[in-house]
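user: can you give me the structure for this one chain? tokens are fine.
assistant: on it. calling the predictor now.
[tool input]
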Amino acid sequence: MLIKIGALSGLTTVILVLLYGQSRIFFQIAKDGLLPRLFSDVHPSLGTPWKSQLMIGIVVAIVAALTPIDILGEMVSIGTLFAFVLVCGAVIYLRKSDAEIARPFRTPGVPVVPVLGIAFSLMLMVFLPLETWLRLVVWLVIGLGLYFAYGRRHSVLLNGTRSS
């Protein structure tokens, strides 16, 4: 029983941290024009992206209520590990493509550290069930669909200005 309580507490903490992080990620993506402005609205007194936090919280609460905890844990794991793979790959790519940009912090041991990050993340992902991989692919397809349906037309980078 103690182990179950610990596992539930740990998973709850991870999901809560991911929720806070996700609203900030949506905030920045919306500022770049890839999501509707609603996601970049900031609370007047708190200075937080409260609308996106509320929407994300509701969606995650529904998913958490309807999804078995083992499946939820696997989905959180593969999503986080996949994000690590992307970030490590981006560090390598940006170090070469935008080498002249000033950086307020440095990643040590590039490309060795990011390559090891990719390798270890993929190694952990390999041991997850096939169904978890299929769920990851479904979420990636949904994300790419949103990008091509909305994001490309509203992208600040591609269009130069933010359209409504």
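assistant: here you go. The chain is about 75% helix and 0% strand. The first helix runs from residue 2 to 31.
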